[in-house]
Amino acid sequence: MESIFHEKQEGSLCAQHCLNNLLQGEYFSPVELSSIAHQLDEEERMRMAEGGVTSEDYRTFLQQPSGNMDDSGFFSIQVISNALKVWGLELILFNSPEYQRLRIDPINERSFICNYKEHWFTVRKLGKQWFNLNSLLTGPELISDTYLALFLAQLQQEGYSIFVVKGDLPDCEADQLLQMIRVQQMHRPKLIGEELAQLKEQRVQKTDLERVLEANDGSGMLDEDEEDLQRALALSRQEIDMEDEEADLRRAIQLSMQGSSRNVSQDIPQTSGTHLTSEELRKRREAYFEKQQQQQHPPAQLSHPRERPTTSSGALGSDPGDAMSEEDMLQAAVTMSLEVVRNNFKTEGKK
């Protein structure tokens, strides 16, 4: 693709770009095309003068602007046709009855010039492949043989006039190179306007981003991103706190169980390999607290040895008001468990 000569659009000089892309080189300049246009204007003036220089038609012709060029750089088909005659080339209208009767397959031609209103561009065969050399594109566009006829038909539907270039085109490097190799195009070229619009949008986005960064004292962080980061940090701290609380709770429960098991193992016989029922656990708890009460308040010696001593915990046959309720025993167990945990924490703190 690099060997293909492709002039991009400048102003309204599409006729110049069309000719140079066709001939594959800088063959024509605006000055040379303007000279051809002036020559055509003079020939037309002389023809009008034949009817009399004092005629109304002649005076009207002199007041009208040139039909072969204008100040923007536009040139007429007559200027293009005369410029190609210098190289022995001729233009034939593609959809004219004379050409259509020849029934020539487009792929057997060498090049086409297409015109719509004031725009001109070339479609040319280089080597064994066809290329759209439109100056409005960012580069040459590869056209397959099967797509060429459809491409020309689409242009005609859009209102383009298509001219077949007849004659031998001058030799060029791209044609010689592409006779030996075939090229592939991964990405089709864009219109120059589209590319400029994309570049402009990118510049605007870059400017907006720089403005935001400056507003944030160069921190490089947008407000939304900063808020997201703060939320993430807060959630992370909450998770860490929850994990710490759970770890402390598990540790306290473990120490409580260890402490309780040590105390209970000293006073209550263990039943290995079996699970205690709730009734057995209640009886053992009553026995444990009854023993604790006996140690704290020894029973008084009675004169009647046959009467069973009464402890603060009471017996099954004693008065219900003197007996310790199951709720009181549960409260005492909780108090003992908490006391064991506190003692264990103090022990660990000393270590």
Automatic annotation (TrEMBL):
Composition skew (Polar residues), residue ranges: 258-276
Keyword ATP-binding: no
Domain of life: Eukaryota
Example GO BP: intermediate filament cytoskeleton organization
Catalytic activity, reaction form: Thiol-dependent hydrolysis of ester, thioester, amide, peptide and isopeptide bonds formed by the C-terminal Gly of ubiquitin (a 76-residue protein attached to proteins as an intracellular targeting signal)
Residue positions of the active site: 14 (nucleophile), 14, 119 (proton acceptor), 119, 134
Coiled-coil blocks: 226-255
Region of interest called Disordered, as start-end residue ranges on this chain: 258-277, 289-331
GO cellular component, one term: cytosol
Protein's cellular compartments: Nucleus
Signal peptide feature range: none
GO molecular function: ATPase binding; cysteine-type deubiquitinase activity; K48-linked deubiquitinase activity; K63-linked deubiquitinase activity; ubiquitin protein ligase binding
Protein name, UniProt field: ubiquitinyl hydrolase 1
Gene (name only): ATXN3
